[in-house]
Please model this.
Amino acid sequence: MKFSVLMAVYIKEKDEYFNKALKSITEQTLMPDEIVIVKDGPLTDSLGKIIEEFMESYPGLFKIVGLEHNQGLGNALRTGILECRNEWIARMDSDDISKDDRFEIQAKFIDENPEIDIVGSDIIEFEDNIDNVLAVRRVPYESEDIVRFAHLRNPFNHMTVMYRKKVVVEAGNYQESKLNEDYNLWVRMIMKGALCANIEDFLVYARTGRDMYKRRGGFKYALSDIKLQKYFYEIGFNGFFRMLFNMVIRTLVRITPNFLREKIYISKLRK
Model:
């Protein structure tokens, strides 16, 4: 099975994290035949050097797309999707670590379930190193459960998904929606009839920690959530009262103090 890997990186990424993320892709039991990296604006010299070293080690594997200015994850991925040459695309974040058999497991699942348009998995959330596990995020596995769950929360772990390029593009591709680029896309794909699945396995180690909980707070993100829920109502995905309920719950989580938000994420939104 031929597939592309899509990753976006920007200037604030740490060299060590980026290097480990790329290494986890190039040491897979099933290798992609293309890795598309979107440089979301100018990078540091050290990040650029890491890319150059991997390109030298794996000739012809990498395709680098440079954006003149930082445009945000949604716009960077929107560009990257169009640059991928394969029908199947695997997403990967620039600071996470894929298990070495991730792509092999997902490719086998796709081969056995050819009607599927998008497949993700559970994740293990860690801080500093993968042995320091903070939480796990399990997601629904069957298509009907995923659609039901999507009315309330994001039903996929973004860094784990593989999807059909055609279906993503037909649904309108990624759009800029702060912290919700993926959730926004999943709902539009679902409304276009995309068949969804998650694999009941932990295929990616996701780097989180206190900084992540801090980043996910504040009025900017609360406003982004409100806009997203309003959009879901306008396109007919959620009803009025579901919209209001989601707005209230999400706003409370966004504006609560950081230490409380961390507890909410780990005790209520994770396992």
Remarks:
- The domain at 4-208 is CATH 3.90.550.10 (Spore Coat Polysaccharide Biosynthesis Protein SpsA; Chain A).
